[in-house]
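Appendix B. One record, verbatim.
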Amino acid sequence: MVVEDDESIRKLVSEALAAWGYEVSAPDPSGDLVASLARESPSLLILDVGLPRLDGYEWCARIRSASKLPILFISARSHPSEIARGLAGGGDDWLVKPFETELLVAKVRALLRRAYSWAPESLPLLERSGIVLDRERCEASREGKKVKLTRHEALLLARLIERDGKVVSREELMEALWSGEVFVDENTLNVNIARLRSTLAYLGAEDLIETVRGSGYRAR
C-alpha cells in the first residue's frame, strides 16, 4: 500500500513496484489510513510524512499500536532527527526523496524478506546501507552511481547482505564461492574481500564490509 499525497510520486512508486510483480493499492491520502489497512490487509506500507489529515509519524504510531506491518517512510526530509523520529516511532526504514526506483524496490524486497518467511532469499535485487546489488547483472549502485562486479564479488556481497548485519563465517563464504573445489587457499578469500572493498570504495562505501576478528565478515 502506497500512501503519498504527491500524485506524480505515488504513480512513480506504484508503477515501479507493479513492474516487479507487486500488487499495489494507493488509497486517498486524506482518508482514514487505519480503515484502509483493515480493509485491504497489505503486506507492506510505504508512507509519506507530509500528509493532509495526520502526518506520517502519527499514522505510524496508530498502526504500531495494533500491527507489526513493515513500514517504509518516504520523505524529502533528510535531517537525522527526522529519520530518527520515524524509526523510533515504529518505522522500519526511511527513503529520502528524490530516489532511484531501484533503491526503492530493493528496500521493499529487503523489508519483505525480513518480515515474512515466505519471502524468497534468491532475490535479484538486494540492499544494504543504500547499496543496491543487482545480482543478475553483477552490478552495484548507490545514488545513481553504478559499478560492475566480478562474479565472485557479486556472490560475496549477496551472501553478506542476505544476513542483515549478522556475521558470516570465512568457511561459509569460501563454500559459497568455491563449492566442490578440492583445495582453496584461505588467502584467496582475503584477496576477493579486498577487491570487493576496493570496488565499493568507488561508490563511497568502502566501510560497508566489516572484519570480525576470529569470526568472519558482516555488512554494516
